[in-house]
Amino acid sequence: MTNATNNDVRSVDELWxxxxxxxxVLRAANAMTAPDKSPSNxxxxxxxxxxxxxxxxxxxxxxxxxxxxxxxxxxxSQLLPEGVPGWxxxxxxxxxxxxxxxxxxxxxxxxxxxxxxxxxxxxxGAVLLSGQDLDDxxxxxxxxxxxxxxxxxxxYESGRTDLIRYPAGPVSELSELRLPPLVVDLYKDIPYAxxxxxxxxxxxxxxxxxxxxxxxxxxQQVGVVDCWHEPHQQMGATYRFRPVEGIxxxxxxxxxxxxxxxxxxxxxxxxVEYVPEARPVEGHKALVRGVWRYTCIPGxxxxxxxxxxxxxxxxxxxxxxxDAYDLCVHVGRxxxxxxxxxxxxxxxxxxxxxxxxxxxxxxxxSGGAEWLVIPDHRAxxxxxxxxxxxxxxxxxxxxxxxxxxxxERSGVAxx
Length: 415
Known about the structure:
The protein is of the alpha+beta class. It folds into four domains: 6-128; 135-190 and 283-287, no CATH class; 193-280, no CATH class; 290-409, 3-Layer(aba) Sandwich (Trna Endonuclease, Chain: A, domain 1), CATH 3.40.1350. It has helices at 6-33, 39-57, 65-71, 103-121, 131-148, 153-165, 171-174, 181-184, 230-234, 263-266, 289-311, 320-323, 352-362, 382-390, 399-409; strands spanning 168-170, 187-189, 199-200, 211-217, 220-226, 238-241, 253-254, 279-280, 284-287, 315-318, 327-331, 340-346, 371-374, 395-398. A five-stranded mixed β-sheet has the order 10-11-12-13-14. β12, α13 (352-362) and β13 (371-374) form a beta-alpha-beta unit. The longest helix is centred in the first third of the chain and has 28 residues, at 6-33.
């Protein structure tokens, strides 16, 4: 986007419209499903969202308030103005059958908002933030700023590692982490949608509270527990339980095991064999959703890739220069004196299109990385991202592809 061409202007306008629609629908869905909002507050937020949506759709695009309320629970693509393409997410909906706001809806709103902020910094777009949007932005920026505050690389690494590895847990343990006090304040009460009769369950992959729902299956009520992050569900973080009475904690039963990964991907595959136990809501807290999703979730493949490469004898620097990029991988055979250093940025976006737009807006990677690595479960995005990245000298690979490649170039085995 170095030139303000007509195509650039049109793409920015489309992105702004899609972001505003996604944000409006997400806010409306949160208002409809949150149990702690009064009827008057629900109506107020819904009316604000309806007005924002009408502004995004433009003149001549009618949508009654009643129709808006009905469509909030469906596919937000149906609310876009004519001619604006929908999102590249299969079976996208804002509210699932259990009445929970979906992770996909949260992701598309957050990811497009990030792209717009990059464009705004370059003077190529405007961003309108709601109160909740602003809270999410402030939380993520404050976490980064506080971790960087000391200006010490080791302090930053230890703090961010703790944040990734411990997104939830007992207050007594969280208070002992190597985190600044203001970052500790980003741990809040266990979300209401992750509770069952005073209990919650940690995802075996990311350790954040999983969502809980009660359904009727074959005439009986069944408890359903799975991670908010769908790729973790596909790795096996999905369970059932029999509803209980009194103070007895429920016991989870794992669902059918997922198909095993191939040998190359198995190196980075998480351990999901143990079944999470019920933990009391009282005395436990969890990171706010935005920090979990855009610090902890991408941080897992960052740490896993670093750990597996180090185990194979490679030198890997984590978050160099206080997170200018994510990994600096030293590649080369032992008998070679001079080793090549590969700068790597790791991204986990639900929308490949939004990530491609981010690359375009930043004209590559903002921190100077020459490799963009995405988790194996985002492999379908490689072709799109590689096409955009090529314009800016940015190589794209999945995490296991990258790991296998650098191991081969260093004369060691990945599998």
